[in-house]
């Protein structure tokens, strides 16, 4: 059975030196996050994840969820009790506003904890994870009455939330939605239609489930401009806030999936269910995107989280398993007939890849979460806009690139186990199956690439991507001034040049033929992801170089950071030139064949 | 449910123009392969695979195999009947020698058919696939008596074969084997020990199962030099060839695996089972390697086979599914609210990647199978050695690179389905799970890389790799002379230069520190795989350019080949420089960390 130990030390390092939490003491929510409290939350969150949630991960995979004849759904053994503990421990409330019962802490701290929960049990996390997104949409777009009615219970975890977009005929292309909303006399709407792939759509963990549903009001344009957002509770809510009548929305079936079996992925049937408009009519997509942007960062975190836990288990196995001999006689263990897997350079390569990915991904995504915080809470409008610019550009990169790399990391970790990696009991193959979904949902990674290239690059005249280049350039200069202990400044600068070249190429050639942008989008996203991780390694190497030279108890920790940064510079950043060439190859050979030729 | 249609047209193209079957009419077995017969076999083999085997693929996945209390194993519904038809149709006999009841056809033809069988149902194919390898070992190393006793029944499929290497404590490192062979008075041995991961170890398809087992004879060196090979039948064979007494070898349990559920992967317990030495004592590894080399090419074929069937289904889905709008207004279907997925460049990219991989992989692996044939049947010793040199070098590349790329192709094909790809009913996730094993078994792909770099490059003073470079260089010159219609000669030449540079680097730096070879081995294997596929595209583009200019009915077919070759040149070969840099990065940053730092 896989093990999991939350990387609290590394999270602290990132929060202190990359996010630089201490700098923002003067801002709302950050003021609540004393370093003692942060440490306590990380430690206790890590413990809860490792001790309570991780042991349920294989059970969830093996049992899955069960739908009963009446449409009710039972979660796997142990999930209900664990969820109760999760709520009682306050883990649903970290970053929620205090006025709704939250702890009013920065988003970046909630993100840090969510990594642990996802590593331990991705399927479990999703019951709460989507609730957080639903809360965000309600807080921004809901009426005061709606907020008061739903949010406190959702913050407490007593009720959970869902997002309902996909229908059988449409996922990416929401303009094709058929679900209808007919006005009732009382100001509510009767919602009718079928939604599919609804994560946590029905289950036994919460007293009520609050569905946020995209639908078209009768008479609205039958395209993407005619979509409105509705809140549709499973049980109608009485005036006193208690749970009332059952709303005619039900789970028609549970999907049989490749992985995340512990989460109930439902077909939801709305049969004239009562719903209330959230925000303005026909502005539903914008409202849903509040939820979706948060969800995309959360999905990016899934890439890291599964990468981390899979890596940890591969390291354990490599330490334990003796097989073959070191290539150099002096590295051989004379006491044993075989050496542990660490002596084999190709096993090391896989483990270094995992380590180098995980630690940079953690830095990037927590830095990204900081931008979310700053976009709301920074002191000046200028600072808020600057943070929003950055996270707008990087959200598709974090979602798309980190989930691809997280999947690869899980595949490599499985590979370290040899044949045992393919056997269910070892649990490695579950990580691969679970990790796979993150590349698909919340907008496939291809959709993320198009979002990046088609929307985000050009947004506000390219302000976001320019700010990104500026930040990276500044840090390269700073690294050089600090002696660049990992030798990463030059390879990163080279990679940045390739990214800038590719950006320019897209700007010029995407205009003449938009298919050029489409054909190069994926490689461009990969290139920006690579540069982003390289940037984080540059930052970490600079910090660790400085700290290492001071008398420190953590000399080995910092030395490890510097070596890993060097590894990334030598083995990973070298991919930049190829990715640029793929971008600049253009659309011609991609689009040349007639459909019949396939 | 997934569909499958054997790519007979493309196989014929490869056999005619890349393998150039017609050139070898004068050789044994080739003389039997008239072009009419080849066409009939491909067509009928494709039909059988598509109509009989493919419909059982999901059933096999859902049901798996069942072990009963007495140790017997039942295969999934329909497998037994299909296997009967498979044997009756003569599909087990294609390349077996006529004197043992075979059809005496070239290996390359049997390989071509095995692609179809594997695409349709990988788990099913493995019952026969391993038998073919066991036959090969017996034919080369067995006594006349052993051959007469076992081979005809195995050729007919009445009996099947297995290979027993792995034990709980060892897979790659066979020196650690504990299974013992104690001499009996009658010249046989009593085999005792536990073998794991034994594909098709026990099942209900055949009347007898012939296990080839690695064990150590009492008193032999307790390392890799003390290993002998034994044949251990499930039922002892009477003098008249009939099945006699049950041998004490039994299936202790069936492994629960990520995929290939339809194949029974067994823990086999040998409790003093009667076995007979195959070949000389303590030369077991060499004897097993005959089987293993054949098996490695077969596993490479699995990469292609799953890539092909997954691609076919992604193409079907992309044609059918309408979602979103073409980026260019003129490409939009005015009759519909959405366009099919083919309009989206990033979907095309995934499909082109699949197409470009599958077709080149088919050419490479059939060309490789030809070398196997020529290494045995070419007229002169010089020709036989030359063929053997080439396939020795390319076997680890075909196994390692083609299974990695096949897995990626399956993952991309699943991605084309969006959320539906994650749902079991669509069958795409099964392809991903099934494809994953091919990267692991028969020597992990990391082991293949080490075989390539550590053994094959230097073998016979580098004769094999030099011959490879010579062939590729000659074909580049020929392509140029023919006008290079795909513009692939230059990018391939560039990639070859990188491969040559990396080869040189390894030769120089692997000597000073063998970890340099180990740390660069994987990237080197990828680079050689890339060049090999590029070489096949160059060959195909040259052929198709010539044929296209002649008045031909197949103009579109050849035009498609040329465009796909151009795609490969522009989008794939550009990775060569990065792979070389990874090789030349050396071992330092890979090996620098102490084990405790992970």
Describe this structure in words.
The structure is a homodimer of 598-residue chains. The first copy, chain A, is of the alpha+beta class and 598 residues long. Chain A has a domain at 449-590. Chain A contains 18 helices and 11 strands. In chain A, the strands form 3 sheets. Chain A has a 5-stranded mixed β-barrel. A two-stranded antiparallel ribbon of chain A has the order 1-2. In chain A, helix 8 packs antiparallel against helix 9 (345-377), helix 10 (381-416) packs across helix 13 (463-481) and helix 15 (514-549) runs antiparallel to helix 17. Chain A is globular. Chains A and B meet through helix 8, helix 9, helix 10, helix 11 and helix 12 of A and helix 8, helix 9, helix 10, helix 11 and helix 12 of B.
**Content-based structural category of chain A:** alpha+beta
What is the string of helix and strand elements of chain A? HHHEEHHHHEEEEEEEEEHHHHHHHHHHH
**Sheet having the most strands of chain A:** 5 strands, mixed, barrel
Number of helices of chain A: 18
Order of strands across the biggest sheet of chain A?
4-5-11-7-6
What is the average of the pLDDT values of chain A? 97
Percent in strands of chain A = 5-15%
Work out the number of β strands of chain A.
11
The radius of gyration computed from the alpha-carbon positions of chain A, rounded to a whole number of angstroms, is 24 Å
Estimate the global geometry of chain A from the Cα principal axes.
Answer: globular
List unreliable stretches of 5+ residues of chain A: none
Give the terminus-to-terminus CA distance of chain A.
Answer: 44 Å
What is the quaternary state of this protein?
Answer: homodimer
Largest interface: A-B, 94 and 94 residues
Residue share in helices of chain A? 55-70%
